[in-house]
Amino acid sequence: MLLTPMRYKDYVWPHNPATYSITFERQVALHKVPFGRYYMQDLGQSCRVMRGEGEFAGPGAYEEFKKLATVFYGGGPGLLIHPVWQVSNAYFTDLRLEQAPLPDYVRYSFTFRERYDGYSDALTALDSAGSAYAGGTEAVTHTVVSGDTLWGVALSYGVALEELLAVNPGIKNPNLIHVGEQVVIPC
What we know:
It is a single chain. The chain is mostly beta strands. The chain has two domains: 7-114, Elongation Factor Tu (Ef-tu), domain 3 (Beta Barrel), CATH 2.40.30; 120-187, Membrane-bound Lytic Murein Transglycosylase D, Chain A. Helix content is 15%, strand content 39%. It has helices at residues 61-74, 150-157, 161-166; strands at 7-8, 11-12, 19-33, 37-57, 77-81, 88-97, 105-114, 140-143, 182-185. The strands form two sheets. The chain has a seven-stranded antiparallel beta sheet with strand order 2-1-5-6-7-4-3, covered by helices on one side. A hairpin with a 2-residue loop joins strand 1 (7-8) and strand 2 (11-12).
């Protein structure tokens, strides 16, 4: 089966990397409770990490690696298009030579981390009755349920975490909210 070549920004691999893996990461906060117990809070999925190894062989192999390095030096996120996995908006976070490069052979590895901007464009905030919230003058509160995170509450109402913390001065630790707690949503 012939696969399309992998691409990132304007760089197209001349042939796909030999190995490729994806790691899904989840953040968990661990809080020590007296007498040896722990309380864990799921902070949600953080990002996908895409790693791989490849080689450039033949005349101009080192020149091809330098083209890839130029994309790495460019910084900022870009579209990572893999022939099998889903398209991802990612940062190119690591590029490594795995041996001393030769003019006709370069072995390398790379890492991309998926950028996560949330889905605020696709979400409509709801008030406690389940009606769309249009940002009126009426205060809206959210009652924390099991599994909620402050970041997740901010995302679901389409507000920045900083705004949420500004109108909830009683929340001293944004990584720790409790079931039943009332969170004021800024208008």
